[in-house]
Automatic annotation (TrEMBL):
Protein's recorded name: Succinyl-diaminopimelate desuccinylase
Positions of the Peptidase M20 dimerisation domain: 197-356
GO biological process terms on file: proteolysis
Gene, per the UniProt record: dapE_1
EC number: 3.5.1.18
SUPFAM superfamilies assigned: Zn-dependent exopeptidases
Length: 466
C-alpha cells in the first residue's frame, strides 16, 4: 500500500469519533429545500459546509447564491497533469413529516447502537461527508490529494436541482473534469457494496381540483355539489388499471426493452422479491404483472400518489365540503421516456377524466431524465478496486429506481462521465421517519473514498496506455 494512503487511512481511523461529532452538527441543521420556511436553514447549512471545507484546507471555497438555495463549490487544482475528479453531493434534505412518527426528533441526531438517526443522515449528508473526510485525511497528512478536486454540493437536489443545471451550463468550461463521483445510491447490505449504472428519471406533478368558491356545510350541500376531494380521488383511481399498469394512453410506448441476458443478470445480482417486501415492511406485492419487484422498481416506469390534501385534517370531525383538493403525483421514468412527453400524455388523460362539475389544474414541480451509464469507463474500475480495499469484497453492478437529476446534466452539459458509488443501506429509511446512517459503513465509506482518489490516476493512466 502506498505510504500516503496508509497515513490517510490511519488519520481517518483516529479521527472517526470527531468525524461523527461533526456529522451530527451537519445533520442538526434542518436544510429542507422543499419548504420555504426553512430557506434560512438551508443557507446556514451551506455556510456550515463551506466553513468545514476551508477548515480542512481547501484553498478556494465559495457559497454561490442562486434564485433559491446556494451552491457550495470548492476546488484544489494543484496537480497539473493529473486527473480532475468532481465530487457531487447534496446537503438539502427531505421534509421530516410526520414528526410524531420519529422515535427521536428528526433534527436532534441521536446514536443508538451502530446507527446515527436524523433526517439527511443517509440521504445525503453522511455519504457526502465521507468524501469530505477522505479529502481531509489526505490534506492533513500528505498536504495534497492525489488528484485535482472539485467539490460541487447542491442545496436543491430534493426539488430537482432547478438552479444548479443552468449554473452548470454557464460555467461548463470552468468546471471541466475527467470524471464525477456521486454517493447518493444504495448498497445491498453492510458487506455487499454496489455501484449503480442506471437511474430512473422523474416527473413531479401537482393536481388541483377546485369546486365551490368557499368551503361548504356538508349537511346543507352534501349530495347537491360535487365534492372536489371526491372528484380528485375519482381521477386518481383511474390513473391505474386494476392489474397495476399505468392507465395513461401511450405511457409505455417508448420504454426501452431489456433483454433476457440483463434480466437474468439482475435476477442473480439484485435483491429478491422477499428482500424487497421485507425492506418495505409489507406482506404482499403489488404492481405491473410479468416482472419481478426489482424489475418493477428499476427497468419499468411507475406512477405513485405521494400526497393528498383537502378538507378538514384536525382532530375529530368537521362537516365540510372543501373548496379545493390537491394531490402530489410522482412518476418514475426509464430510458427513452421523455419527461416533457409524459407530462403531456398525463395532462391529456386527466383532462379526459375530469368531470364538468369541477375545475382541474396540473402543475409541473420537477423533471429529470433517466440515465444509463457506461460502466466500462476506467473510473468504474477505480471504484471497484476502492470498494474491494474498503469493504473487503468487490461491488455488484445494480440498476436503481431512484433519480439524481444532476447525473444527466453532468454528462450532457459538462461531458463528464459519472461514477455512482453507493454507501446507503436498504434499511436506512431514506425519505421516511427514523432515517439513519450505519456508522461502521460510514467508516468504511471514508476508507473507500481514500482508496478511490488514490486509484483514479492509476486506472485512468493504465487505460490511456492500453
Amino acid at each position: 500500500m502506498d505510504d500516503a494512503v496508509a497515513r490517510a487511512l490511519a488519520y481517518a481511523k483516529a479521527a472517526r469519533p470527531g468525524f461523527v461529532a461533526q456529522l451530527k452538527d451537519f445533520v442538526r441543521i434542518p436544510s429542507v429545500s422543499a419548504d420555504p420556511r426553512h430557506a434560512a436553514d438551508v443557507r446556514r447549512c451551506a455556510d456550515w459546509l463551506a466553513r468545514d471545507l476551508r477548515r480542512i484546507g481547501m484553498p478556494r471555497v465559495r457559497v454561490i447564491a442562486t434564485p433559491r438555495n446556494p451552491i457550495v463549490y470548492a476546488d484544489w487544482l494543484g496537480a497539473p497533469g493529473r486527473p480532475t475528479v468532481l465530487i457531487y453531493g447534496h446537503y438539502d434534505v427531505q421534509p421530516a413529516d410526520p414528526p410524531d412518527a420519529w422515535r427521536t426528533p428528526p433534527f436532534e441526531p441521536t446514536v443508538r447502537g451502530d446507527d446515527l438517526f436524523g433526517r439527511g443522515a443517509s440521504d445525503d449528508k453522511g455519504p457526502l461527508f465521507a468524501h469530505v473526510k477522505a479529502l481531509e485525511s489526505f490534506l492533513r497528512t500528505r498536504g495534497t490529494p492525489p488528484v485535482n478536486i472539485r467539490c460541487l454540493f447542491d442545496g436543491e437536489e430534493e426539488i430537482g436541482s432547478p438552479n444548479l443545471v443552468p449554473w452548470l451550463a454557464r460555467h461548463r468550461r470552468a468546471l471541466a473534469s475527467d470524471l464525477a463521483v456521486i454517493s447518493d445510491t444504495r448498497m445491498l447490505g453492510p458487506d455487499r457494496p454496489a455501484m449503480t449504472y442506471s437511474l430512473r428519471g422523474s416527473l413531479g406533478l401537482e393536481l388541483e381540483v377546485r369546486g365551490p368558491r368557499r368551503d361548504l356545510h356538508s349537511g346543507a350541500f352534501g349530495g347537491a355539489v360535487h365534492n372536489p376531494l371526491q372528484a380528485l380521488c375519482e381521477i386518481l383511481a383511474r390513473l391505474h388499471h386494476p392489474d397495476g399498469r399505468v392507465a395513461v394512453p401511450g405511457f409505455y410506448d417508448r420504454v426501452r426493452p431489456v433483454g433476457p441476458d440483463e434480466r437474468s443478470f439482475m435476477a442473480r445480482r439484485g435483491p429478491s422479491d422477499a428482500r424487497i417486501l421485507r425492506d418495505a415492511g409489507v406482506d404482499r406485492p403489488w404492481g405491473e404483472p410479468g416482472y419481478s419487484l426489482h424489475e418493477r422498481t428499476t427497468i419499468r416506469p411507475a406512477l405513485t400518489i405521494n400526497g393528498l390534501s383537502g378538507g378538514y385534517q384536525g382532530p375529530g370531525g368537521k362537516a365540510v365540503i372543501p373548496a379545493s383538493a390537491v394531490a402530489k403525483v410522482g412518476i418514475r421514468l426509464v430510458p427513452d421516456q421523455d419527461p416533457g412527453e409524459i407530462s403531456r400524455l398525463v395532462r391529456r388523460h386527466i383532462a379526459r377524466l375530469a368531470p364538468p362539475t369541477v375545475r382541474v389544474a396540473v402543475r409541473t414541480l420537477q423533471r429529470a431524465r433517466p440515465v444509463h451509464l457506461v460502466h466500462r469507463h476506467p473510473g468504474f474500475q477505480a471504484a471497484a478496486i476502492a470498494y474491494r480495499r474498503g469493504f473487503g469484497t468487490v461491488p455488484v453492478l445494480l440498476r436503481s429506481g431512484g433519480t439524481i437529476p444532476v447525473v444527466d446534466a453532468l454528462q450532457s452539459i459538462l461531458c463528464t462521465p459519472c461514477i455512482l458509488m453507493g454507501f446507503a443501506l436498504p434499511d436506512d429509511r431514506m425519505h421516511a421517519p427514523d432515517e439513519k446512517l450505519h456508522l461502521p459503513t460510514f467508516g468504511r465509506a471514508i476508507a473507500t473514498c481514500i482508496h478511490f482518489l488514490a486509484e483514479v490516476p492509476v486506472s485512468l493512466s493504465y487505460n490511456e496506455i492500453h
